[in-house]
């Protein structure tokens, strides 16, 4: 039997919470049935619990009208759609292919321009190109419109470019802090906050400042500041500012990490599913983040279903950081679903094909999953072969310097050495106790360490249960 309102129902399920909040702000319908439709759509988009069905007795044309109205309103504020339009116009101006209708639309856009918007820099640069285009063709009246715009916004443009360059330098500092852990970036905080909160600046610079602040607070583990920052941009998104689905997906993915760090795993899962509603270049990263949460929540079947839906993307992607992450989680998912042979075969095949990439990008993530499955199958000699071949003990000593270190691989190697008769019980206990001396674990980290201990206790209860007293 054909489902009534199937097309509209599917469309309504794509609406994101912040889109719904924006639509709520701009509703001006007087028609009772149209109001009923849009209000239910908004309620469904904002609900974390149940989805309510739409009234099939209302004329289908009204559903079509609402769908068109929503698409038009969201397109109008979509900063990615605007940049696509500006890039398209620039190409047509540079190749003398712009039509009269397109020129008229652009001139009207310039005439009506009142406040600095998200893509202001790109707009200003396009206007400079168009000014030359008009002058060569002696179109003085149109040239005057563009020249006036350029003159009026010249100081704003110079300021925008200056801030853009400073943000690039700040990006270098903050990402270096994350990757090299070699410098302090706190001196940037107040300036970045000023940029983010300055409503006279273009949205692109303001959003970049937001991203860098979020990155910085993550580096310093300042979760309260991070949550406060997210609450601020939450308001902007709900007003339709700095909006595109790409930016919302990025924001939802960031909230996944925040809620995860605060042990709010149901919230993290909710935002994880929101982050993958829209496909973009970062989708596989968002899928991996969601998989981590689903595994943490014990939703192994849902994690498996998620990965089944994204297997093609995993096969085709050239981002090895995310490709390795996906495979590592896949190994864990298979293990949790008691598909241990498949888990081991998947790890072995992947390592054979992507050995160099694994060592270069995410060796710790991959080998943790691989070694866990070998330990569960009591293949201790295989663990020691991997350790020797890939120099894992030396790599672990370097990895211990990271703030979120969990000695999973280190303990698994020590366990395997004991089980293979390479060390005695006293040496084993000293070895597994050693990594804990350098760790002051966060609550999240402590939970992970205890989980690893419980897992390894299945193989050797006396040693690892004794270790618990040292945490």
| Uncertain residue segments | none
Number of helices: 26
The helicity comes to: over 70%
Name the average pLDDT. 93
Structural class: mainly alpha
- In percent, how much strand structure appears in the residues? under 5%
Structure summary, number of beta strands: 0
**Helices and strands, in N-to-C order?**
HHHHHHHHHHHHHHHHHHHHHHHHHH
Would you give an account of this structure?
The chain is mainly α. Among the domains are: 72 residues, no CATH class; 74 residues, no CATH class; 94 residues, no CATH class. 74% of the residues lie in helices and 0% in strands. The protein contains 26 helices and no strands. Helix 10 packs antiparallel against helix 11, helix 13 packs antiparallel against helix 14 and helix 13 runs parallel beside helix 15. The longest helix has 27 residues. The protein is globular, with a radius of gyration of 27 Å. It starts with 5 loop residues before the first helix and ends with a helix.
